[in-house]
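Whether sequence alone determines local backbone shape is best considered at the level of individual chains. When preparing material for the folding task, we compiled for one chain both its residues and its backbone structure tokens. The sequence in question and its structure tokens are set out directly beneath this paragraph.
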Amino acid sequence: MNPAPMTCTKFGMNLARARNFMRTLAQSPPAMEAYRAAERSLAKSRLTAGEREQIALAVAEINDSKYCLAAHTASGKGAGLSPEDIRLARKAVAIDPRADAMLRFTQAIVLQRGDLGDEDLRALRLAGISEPEMVEIVATIAHNIFANYLSLVSRIEADFPLLHPEPNHAAAAGALCS
């Protein structure tokens, strides 16, 4: 079964380029439907396309998903992220204070499996991130974890130039969250 190409006009990328991921996902029509529904819904969130790509890059780096790192590097460029924004997002940091708080929150959620302290939530609020945006960040993380895990479990062959996670990123990231 060949899925119809999914066009993400919000940042000018046609996910047909990620055809191996979509082909794997299409093996389960309910999984494909859920993935696409989440993608459409998250595109309407308060988070910008660039912010969602920064989250995707941070999550892919933490999960060692080479496929998703490559895909989100390409889509991040299409969403207006600079090479420096992409490099920093992979480390779950940003120059912009709002994006930095969002990425540190993302890192804490993934590494601490959602078990956050009041400090983590307070830092997010101090950066001006609202409760609805917080929920949308968590939804974006979950959506990306699904894609990371599917690409890892299925050993999806790359149809993007592969990037490699930085050595010991997760271990170093853990030190930032403590």
Q: What stands out?
A: Strands lie at 7-8, 13-14. The CA atoms of residues 36 and 173 lie 30 Å apart.
